[in-house]
From TrEMBL:
Domain of life: Bacteria
Keywords from the UniProt entry: DNA-binding, Transcription, Transcription regulation
An annotated Gene Ontology molecular function: DNA-binding transcription factor activity
SMART domains noted in UniProt: HTH_GNTR
Protein name, per record: GntR family transcriptional regulator
Length: 206
């Protein structure tokens, strides 16, 4: 982190890591006074950090209940996946508008490499996340990329809370196939891929 980072920046980064690593459990309360004492910061600084993570949807703030780590219902997951689908299908549409149904090797190579990292890592959630971020970024739309990255942080939190074992090799194969299908079928392939993902996530919760 930059030397110019403020105390609020540093605390937000620390709490973000603790939430995404599972160190702070779903529903765990975060008290301004306790955090101010723990990190030797003012309550105003702590409040700004918490507000930032609430805006990222990693925390929730409710009247009379304070701030706590976000948790997810089935409806939350469906809504999250619907938004992912809207952004990713539009990104795919833009890529195909530029490159048709046969994308250039310089575009595909980093995407296949991102897919291959799913098989190489012990915990493939971050590699999976990086693959979809890279695909969306390939569209070259800064606003879509920014919106997707904000959403992706929330998705990582859900996957961490799910605590399910992922088969990295299977994920790799599925996403290499997805790259072939999305070139051929475009947005329809993206919708099918994410619909299957939604069904899988809901079944794991059950």
């Amino acid at each position: 982190m930059s030397e110019r980072a403020t105390g609020a920046d540093r605390l937000a980064a620390e709490l973000r890591q603790r939430v995404l690593s599972g160190d702070l459990e779903p529903g765990a309360p975060l008290r301004e006074e306790a955090l101010a004492d723990e990190y030797a910061l003012s309550r105003h600084t702590v409040r700004r950090s918490l507000e930032r993570l609430v805006a990222e949807r990693l925390l929730v703030s409710e009247a009379y209940r304070g701030v706590r780590v976000a948790s997810f219902s089935d409806a939350d997951i469906v809504a999250l996946q619907q938004l992912r689908t809207a952004l990713e299908t539009e990104a795919v549409r833009l890529i195909r508008a530029d490159h048709g149904d046969s994308w250039p090797v310089e575009l595909l190579t980093p995407l296949f490499e991102a897919a291959d990292r799913m098989a190489a890592e012990a915990s493939p959630e971050h590699a999976h996340s990086a693959f979809h971020r890279a695909l969306v970024a390939t569209a070259g739309s800064p606003r879509i990329t920014e919106a997707y990255e904000r959403l992706d942080t929330e998705m990582l939190l859900f996957l961490r809370q799910l605590r399910s074992a992922y088969d990295g090799a299977q994920l790799c194969a599925e996403h290499r196939d997805y790259l072939s299908e999305v070139q051929r079928l475009g947005a329809d392939a993206a919708r099918q891929h994410l619909a299957a993902s939604t069904a899988m996530l809901l079944s794991l919760r059950a």
